[in-house]
Design goal:
OB fold (Dihydrolipoamide Acetyltransferase, E2P); rod-shaped; five-stranded antiparallel β-sheet; 6 domains
């Protein structure tokens, strides 16, 4: 608003009485300026004095300056006139202030100083009060930066008697914004690309000044890539172009987007990175299950730990990859909806299993290295990148194995025979025992049923004995098939003693040989007689033998 000039004041005074009276506003000139105030020529018998705090503008207190004062009394106890510049300023400005207030117009004020509860402001030469709650439409963090600022305000309260005026910057801003919002809504529509200035940042987004009103740029609409704070995408006072996303005329809310001005990085991703394509990227993070690799801004893929090496069992991805490192990989799969790309690092090198049929054959002997031990067997490395399994049943021909670790250790090299190759399922089975001839088969070929053999007693049990035959084959002979009877086996036989036995039955499926010592001592028949039934004790089947041996094992 335009301030009252000296010309305006002169016109007002011309209409007043020539002889001033108490309550009039009179013209005075500054005669002398001191540390405490100024001496004034009032055109009266005595000169007047005003303290410096009466002057809102320090230049008005300079010598020779003409000012207007309110004559409260011709003289005080000391004979000097009682005058006030503030009251004169207030009364002269009052009519204009009242007009502005009654017509709900905006006025211009200057913030002078911080006082309790708000600020003291100069409103057309009159002191007014600006409460802290009415200083700005948005919270003001630095109150000292407001001192000396000129602002448009709304006069919200006046009291002539108390010379009290209250103004609001907040209401003025709201009014201006209401006008600006009406103007913007009339000419702008959803989809428009407009200019804006970043006014403020919050955790959830940024407020953009789009010509007098604020629009919200949400954090999710700043960038296609995930960010944790708006400051990663925009800066305060930065001028940017945004796209109008939402316009709500009822609430006045406007939402804008920044990322919508650039293509979505995952658009047509399948054409850009076809499956099987070799790519290079920067490792952004390494986790327990793999590593994330940035192919370009906003595009990341995962190299799973299982896709890092053909030849090594990687337990810790950080042992071979570091953040910031550049790696080469092959695109394995793409899910555009889920925004996922699966990458493989080992696919950049030949798969050892692709040529396994050319390098390995069933029946081939190979020196292998134990890489891992389980109770059921041992995993071994046959060639670089190709492993197989030796089951505990393939350790020995003549021993039962409970745990692989009882006979093998990690890193040990052993000779084994390749038994099966399943390239499709990436499985190979091997056998240690097949490196040697099967002692059971050898014995069976050398000693057919009905033949006699010599064996050494290896163990004596309550219900029979164990006998080690040629080639290391060990079998159990129940007490009923022994020649020596009448006492317990331990009283009749000695460990290490050699005895002769007859091979009664050979079961190749169960790998069992039924032996009998007493048949060695049977006298041969001289004449043919009708067969007599065998004693009940001799009616043994191979099942009886196995059950008897099982019970003997349990007792042992």
């Amino acid at each position: 608003m335009k301030d009252i000039t000296l010309e305006d004041l002169n016109k007002l005074l011309e209409t007043s009485l020539v002889t001033p009276k108490e309550g009039d506003i009179i013209k005075a000139s500054v005669i002398k300026k001191t540390e405490n105030g100024v001496l004034l020529n009032l055109g009266l018998k005595a000169e007047g004095f005003l303290p410096l705090e009466e002057f809102s503008n320090p230049e008005d207190a300079d010598e020779g300056k003409e000012i207007y004062v309110f004559l409260e009394a011709y003289e005080n106890r000391d004979g000097f006139p009682v005058i006030s510049k503030k009251k004169a300023d207030f009364q002269l400005a009052w009519d204009k202030i009242k007009h502005i207030y009654e017509n709900s117009e905006l006025a211009t004020c200057t913030i002078k100083k911080r006082i309790k509860g708000g600020y003291s402001v100069d409103l057309m030469g009159v002191e007014a009060f600006l409460p802290s709650s009415q200083i700005e439409y948005k919270a003001q963090s630095d109150s000292e930066s407001l001192i000396g600022r000129k602002n448009d305000v709304k006069i919200v309260k006046i009291n002539m008697l108390r010379k009290n005026i209250v103004v609001s910057r907040k209401m003025a801003v709201e009014e201006e914004q209401a006008k600006a919002r009406k103007r913007i809504f009339s000419k702008m529509k959803v989809g428009d690309i407009i200019d804006g200035t970043v006014r403020n940042l919050t955790d959830f987004g940024a407020f953009i000044d789009i010509g007098g009103i604020d629009a919200l740029l949400h954090i999710t609409d700043i960038s296609w890539i995930k960010i944790t704070h708006p400051a990663e995408g925009v800066k305060v006072n930065e001028k940017i172009k945004v796209k109008v996303l939402i316009m709500d005329r009822e609430t006045g809310r406007i939402a804008v987007g920044l990322k919508q001005l650039t293509p979505h990085p995952w658009e047509a991703i399948e054409k850009k990175y076809p499956v099987g394509t070799r790519v290079k990227g920067r490792v952004t993070s390494v986790v327990d299950y793999g590593a994330f690799v940035e192919l370009e801004k906003g595009i990341e893929g995962l190299i799973h730990v299982s896709e890092m090496s053909w030849t090594k069992d990687i337990k810790d991805p950080s042992s071979i990859l570091k953040s910031g490192e550049t790696v080469e990989a092959v695109v394995l799969s793409i899910d555009r909806n889920e925004q996922r790309i699966s990458l493989g690092m080992k696919q950049t090198k030949p798969d050892p299993w692709s040529t396994v049929d050319e390098k390995l054959t069933v029946g081939q002997k190979a020196v292998v290295k134990v890489t891992n031990l389980k109770d059921f067997g041992a995993f071994v490395q046959i060639i670089d990148g190709v492993e197989g399994l030796i089951h505990i049943n393939d350790f020995f021909w003549d021993k039962k194995v409970k745990k692989a670790s009882d006979y093998l250790r990690k890193g040990q090299k052993v000779e084994a025979v390749i038994c099966t190759i399943d390239r499709k399922n990436r499985r190979i089975s091997l056998s240690i025992k097949r490196c040697k001839e099967d002692p059971f088969t050898k014995f069976s070929d050398s000693y057919p049923e009905g033949s006699k053999a010599i064996g050494k007693i290896s163990d004596i049990l309550p219900k029979g004995i164990r006998l080690v035959l040629e080639g290391g084959v060990e079998e159990f002979i129940p007490a009923n098939y022994l020649a020596r009877r009448g006492k317990k086996p331990k009283d009749l036989y000695k460990l290490g003693e050699e005895i002769e036995v007859t091979v009664r039955k050979i079961n190749t499926r169960l790998r069992r040989i039924i032996l009998s010592e007493k048949e060695v001592f049977k006298a041969p028949s001289k004449k043919k007689e009708a067969p007599k039934p065998k004693p009940a004790a001799d009616k043994f089947t191979i099942g009886d033998i196995l059950n008897s041996q099982k019970k003997a094992d349990e007792q042992e």
